[in-house]
Give the backbone structure.
Amino acid sequence: MTWGNGVLYVIVCASGAAGDVGRLVRLARDEGWTVQIVATPPALDFIDVPALERQTGRPVRSRYRRPDEPKPPRADAIIVAPATFNTINKFALGIADTYALGLLAEAPGLGIPVVVLPFVNDALASRAPFRRSVESLRAEGVSILAGQGRSGPPAAHDRAGDPEDRPWARALDALGRLRREAPGEVAGS
Ligand SMILES: Cc1cc2nc3c(=O)[nH]c(=O)nc-3n(C[C@H](O)[C@H](O)[C@H](O)COP(=O)(O)O)c2cc1C
């Protein structure tokens, strides 16, 4: 199904899985999205920046723009993948000390759909702060998928695709569900 054609921000955190985010970029572009990669500062060590820039045709961003730099296009949707323990907890608390977190801090208030694909091990996922973060973000309409390694419904893309694409495809499927449930909804209106 092609219903993209907007600007999708993919926020990449410092997880070992970040090296595979090109799979998500390919799937998203196949759906018609323009993809803007935003990396947390530590995620820059985990990704191939030139390869992602070639794939998206856009610079990878990891810091706030300088005041004299032009404003980048607004996101129509955001996927945080892979999402770390650290970034999920900071997002829930409203901390905006990196560009990635600044975008996330505003997104629910702007009505921008956000899907989070956690890559968090069981020890961290069992912690009370993490469980509280997931609960409070869900209460604000953020879609938090089951962590990797846990069972979930098969993604629509699984039917014909590469099994390695599965987690990334699940994030796009969740975004499609969010948009169908609340098309054009602006939080708080
Ligand atoms: C090789 C390596 C792999 C990591 N993978 C993960 C991971 O999958 N999930 C996670 O929550 N943290 C992981 N970490 C820890 C994060 O990189 C660390 O908490 C970092 O501060 C997260 O920063 P960010 O949330 O700003 O991207 C990993 C660290 C290393 C060195």
Remarks:
- Strands lie at 7-12, 34-39, 77-83, 114-118, 143-144.
